[in-house]
Amino acid sequence: MLLTELNTPCYIIRAGEFEENMARFRAAFASRWGEKLLLGYSVKTNNFPWLLKTAMERGFWAEVVSPDEYDFALRCGCPEEKILFNGPQKQDRLLSACRAGATVNLDNLEEVEAVCAAFGGGDFQPRLGLRVNFDLEALCPGETTCQGVPGRFGLCLENGDFARALEKLQGAGLPLAGLHLHQSSKSRSLKIFAAIAETAVKLAGEYGLTALDYVDMGGGFFGGSFFPGKPGFEEYAETVCAILKTAFDPTRTTLVLEPGAAVLATSMDYLCSVLNIREVRGQRIVTLDGSLLHINPMMNPHPTPFTMLNPGAEGGADQIVAGSTCMELDRFWPRDMHNLAGHETQFLFHACGAYMSTHNSSFINAAPNIYLERGGDYTLLRKKSLDALLRVE
Ligand SMILES: Cc1ncc(COP(=O)(O)O)c(C=O)c1O
Fold first, then answer.
1. 268-277: per-residue pLDDT in tens?
2. pLDDT tens digits, residue range 181-197?
3. Using CB atoms within 10 A of its CB, is residue 318 exposed (0-12), middle (13-18) or buried (19+)?
4. Going by CA atoms, what residue is nearest to atom 9 of ligand 1?
5. What's the CATH class of domain 3-12+266-390?
6. E strand segments, the chain
7. How far, in Å, is the centroid of ligand 1 from the Cα of 33?
8. pLDDT in tens, 86-117
9. Looking at ligand 1, which residue's alpha carbon is closest to its atom 16?
10. 34-259 belongs to which homologous superfamily?
11. In this structure, how many other beta carbons lie within 10 angstroms of the beta carbon of residue 175?
12. Going by C-beta distance under 8 Å and a sequence separation of 6 or more, which residues neighbour residue 282?
């Protein structure tokens, strides 16, 4: 199948880009940290099964943050001992995941107490980490997603909860396997990753944790080919590894990374066709068959890189490019349009692989088709369907 034969709107997974992103990310860290490197595929960033399965074939574990994501990973064929279980809502999966050999990063004191009650003093030792909540905003002002309010996840360092969690585990005879330090940020800067790594080093010194099995830096990296001027994988790896090596031994401690957007964002495009063109009080309006909701579900006012296929006439392209839903706000934000779209024009939006299809609902339009592109050939992997809407138990 060719690009021009695809049923739009649709997502297109670029197999080559995805595989290259994963390989480049791994190589950047492996060349600095060595063999004890573990990559987790962040299911929340894109929960399309082909992507997780392909990542698993390349040695990734599944990183999940809910019982549903946990089940999804199992149904994609992930063994439980290759699951990294994070997040604040483990629910009844907390103890069963521990028993099954998953790596479980405890998020709050209630989880710590539950595992101590279940496994304390026994023969079985689950593989446990503690998610650290520290004031990253104080270290990197203006760069984090939480300004003026504390981050919600993990055990607070400043109020003593982290120390209390350690004591409880120790008291129950349960060894701490690792630290989990994921932090989301707006900037995804090297300064953010330096601050996270320095916090791990500080904790190792203060609490005698230099011999941990793993340090998990989480995700939050930029990646792929559409983010000029942003840090690359090599720079992230250099920053993180140089700092962690001041406290941890790479031949003993595994460096865990959970790259989502870094490997996924540029791995997916989104293709739309023109439905109709009108003029309203001097403004040209081009309506596409897709929707901004499919590539910018929070409708943030930011542009998405794009290519126009079969572009219309060149010239100051003063036109609104709108989506097909009935929401006025459903307007794409293409910049630098040099051509007026014609009826044969298609818009190919790039870098649509992270946190986009994952948010698809059936609002007005069923979720779009998903195609896989490999070597210029296209295969339909998921057909647009009303099944999710019509199913009644
Ligand atoms: C615990 C955890 N790990 C990894 C990720 C992936 O982050 P990103 O897609 O920004 O790399 C997230 C995203 O929120 C997360 O919460």
1. 999 999 999 9
2. 999 999 999 999 999 99
3. exposed
4. 260
5. mainly beta
6. 10-14, 37-42, 61-64, 83-85, 103-106, 127-133, 155-156, 178-180, 214-216, 254-257, 268-280, 283-288, 306-309, 319-322, 346-349, 369-374, 377-382
7. 21
8. 999 999 999 999 999 999 999 999 999 999 99
9. 182
10. Alanine racemase (3.20.20.10)
11. 12
12. none
The closest-lying atom of ligand 1 relative to the alpha carbon of residue 262 is: 11
Ligand 1: which residue has its CA nearest to atom 10?
A: 220
Q: Is the CB of 131 under 6 A from ligand 1?
A: no
Q: In sequence order, what are the beta bridge partners of 84?
A: 63, 103
User: Distance, CA 206 to ligand 1 centroid (Å)?
Assistant: 27
Cβ–Cβ contacts within 10 Å for residue 210, how many?
14
Evaluate: CB of 69 within 6 angstroms of ligand 1.
Answer: no
Ligand 1 atom with least separation from CA of 355: 9
Ligand 1 centroid – CA 278 distance (Å):
41
d(CA 155, ligand 1 centre) in Å: 17
Q: Would you say residue 364 has pLDDT above 90? A: yes
Residue-range domain boundaries for the chain: 3-12+266-390, 34-259
- Is any atom of ligand 1 closer than 6 Å to the C-beta of 258? yes
pLDDT at site 316: 64
Six-digit token pair at 78? 């992930």
**Residue to probe by mutation, ligand 1, list 46, 133, 184, most atoms within 8 Å of CB:** 184
| Residue type present at position 4 | T
Q: Measured between alpha carbons, how far is 97 from 67 in angstroms, rounded to an integer?
A: 10
**Closest-lying ligand 1 atom to the alpha carbon of residue 258:** 4
Measured distance CA(52)–CA(62) in Å, rounded = 7
What residues pair up with 277 in beta bridges, in sequence order?
286
Residue nearest to atom 4 of ligand 1 (CA): 219
Residues 6+ apart with CB under 8 A from 219: 42, 45, 63, 182, 257, 258, 259, 260, 261, 262
